[in-house]
Amino acid sequence: MVDRRQFIGSIPVSAMAISAIALARPAASQDAAAEDSPSDSLIASPPVVQNPRGDSFGVSIAVDQLATAWVEYGLDRDDLKFTAIASQHGLVSADDRALHVRVQHDHPFPVGQPIFYRVVVQPLAYKYAYVLQRGEPQATDVYALRLPDPGAKRVRVVSINDTHENLETIRQLHAQIEALAPDLLIWNGDTCNDFDASDQPAQIMLNPAKDRSVSWASTRPLVFSNGNHDVRGQRARETIDCFVGCPESSELPYNQALRIGPLALVTMDTGEDKPDRHPVFAGTAAYEPYRSRQATWLQQAVNQPEVRDAPFKIVACHIPLRGLPGQNDGTTLEGYASFSGFGAKLWLPTLVESGFQAVLSGHMHRDRLDPASEEMPILQFVGGGPTAEKATLTIIDAEQNATDPSMEIRITDLGGKVLHQHTWDGKR
């Protein structure tokens, strides 16, 4: 039984006042705003939960017009007694594409219990500075979210990659993910082909199945690892407004270090597949110093107790860190990277020294398993491509039993056939 008093004070009084004012606005004002902003098209995606922590999580949602948003949540489906509002520096956030709400609780959430929540969005229209109109609030369904438990004895993580807006593949992946029921989902890069002016990043990333009733990250958290196609195009800079990154760092938003049961997960951003000086970037690429900053972060992350002491450690990054003989490492102006030579040089020594067992990657659109060797004791699982025939899921099952921990990683196709598999018993 959780003491009700543990949850009191989770939001400021001002935040509650904003919600109350919005919901209590006179009907005439609501009707006037609704005429300018049709209410039936306000919510444009299912909620997407991201970046879980013991006392917090983020929720993103796409909208079809200028709006604000808040999250109502609690430990009982019928009693969503707490509210978290999207705001920055005292100003409530508003956007006409996507909104992100960080639920920051006063205390760690109870382990093993679902958190019930819904997202409420409300249209906003400006006539001028002192004349603002609010439309009728709309709410999503109530979802039962389970945050990963750092102390769990058993954990399942599923990683997908290179979906490239392929609707048939995405819908089949969704069905497989629901059947597998992971504790955490990794989207390991290349959500799109590119983000040109005509594209809608919020729809591609937050509503990939083009169906608001279909969500793979409303009841479990999603961790996003950037791909090289996700950084291309005029609107690529909007991705951070959809998949809001690590709450502890705006400089390295796609670097995460999470402990889930016996498993430690680290994510890295391999960036583009060509050198910064390549003429196709026209001087807009600065991934080489960015990878160096990540190397410094990684050295610190692997020494955090929750990572250092984990029986099993895996790293997720879009472009592989190891290549096959003769493959391009992406450090020259010729061709493009089959593996990240920049990332390998900067990060692999730290990962090897810290005892990481596996790299999860994609990029090549062809699944494979690179075995460990004496020189390179880290296995590498490379996921498949965007078509249904090539698409794969990488499934990680880790268990801390009474004697020795164990971990199995397998790559399957959309029919569930195991293509590659490896099992660890004990710490290696």
From TrEMBL:
Gene3D superfamilies assigned to the protein according to its UniProt record, in alphabetical order: 3.60.21.10
Residue ranges constituting the Calcineurin-like phosphoesterase domain according to the UniProt record: 156-366
Pfam families for the chain: Metallophos
InterPro entries on file: Calcineurin-like_PHP, Metallo-depent_PP-like, PAPs-like
Transmembrane intervals: none
Keywords from the named record: Signal
UniProt xrefs under SUPFAM superfamilies: Metallo-dependent phosphatases (SSF56300)
Source species, domain of life: Bacteria
Protein name, UniProt field: Calcineurin-like phosphoesterase
